[in-house]
Structures are given as C-alpha cells and as structure tokens.
Amino acid sequence: MATVKVDTSNFAAEVLQSAEPVVVDFWAEWCGPCKMIAPALEELAVQFEGKVKVAKLNIDENPELAAQFGVRSIPTLAMFKAGEVADIKVGAAPKTALQSWISSAA
C-alpha cells in the first residue's frame, strides 16, 4: 500500500483512531526537500505495510492541522501512536535514516 492522503475530513479516522502507528508527512507542493524524501516515503510505506501507516498532509490545503501540531517548517514527520504524537522529525533525511526511525515504531 502506498501512502495515504489525509486532510481535515479523514485525519481523525486515518491517524488518530488508527490501530497501527502512523507517520504523517507534513509537506507542501513548493517544498524542494519534501519532494526529495517523497519517493523514499512511498517505498517505506510499502515496506512497513501492516505495521506502520505512512500518511501525507498538504499544509497549504490543511493549515489548521499543521498549526494544531505545531508544524513550523517542512518537511516535518510526526509519529502518532494511539492517537498521540510520539515523536517528531523535522527536515529531510536519507532513506536509511527514515527507515531506522520508522522501524522503531513497527
């Protein structure tokens, strides 16, 4: 399964009420580093399918959610467990670093 697109209409169901941990990628179309890590996140979404969900949230389309979780720069990756933010990673990182970070939740 690839990444899941989330917004205000499905954030609670897809992220907060998820039985599995969820990594939310807060991104924007104009963000170069966001585009750099997007392919790695797609691959990791497939790799961790059934263990960790990877979701993408466009901050330009959902500014209230970005503000709610204190996102000030992008890319910001937030790890949600049982509806709560368990960890946050700000900035682009190599796939190996992202894989290690996500596997800590799997």
UniProtKB/TrEMBL annotation:
Coiled coil: none
Annotated positions for site Contributes to redox potential value: G32, P33
InterPro entries the UniProt entry points to: Thioredoxin, Thioredoxin-like_sf, Thioredoxin_CS, Thioredoxin_domain
UniProtKB keywords: Disulfide bond, Electron transport, Redox-active center, Transport
Residue ranges annotated for the Thioredoxin domain, each copy included: 1-106
One Gene Ontology CC term in the entry: cytoplasm
NCBIfam families xrefs: thioredoxin
Disulfide bonds: C31-C34
UniProt site positions, description: Deprotonates C-terminal active site Cys: D25
Active site: C31, C34
Ubl conjugation as UniProt keyword: no
Similarity section: Belongs to the thioredoxin family.
GO molecular function terms attached to this record: protein-disulfide reductase activity
Name the UniProt record assigns to this protein: Thioredoxin
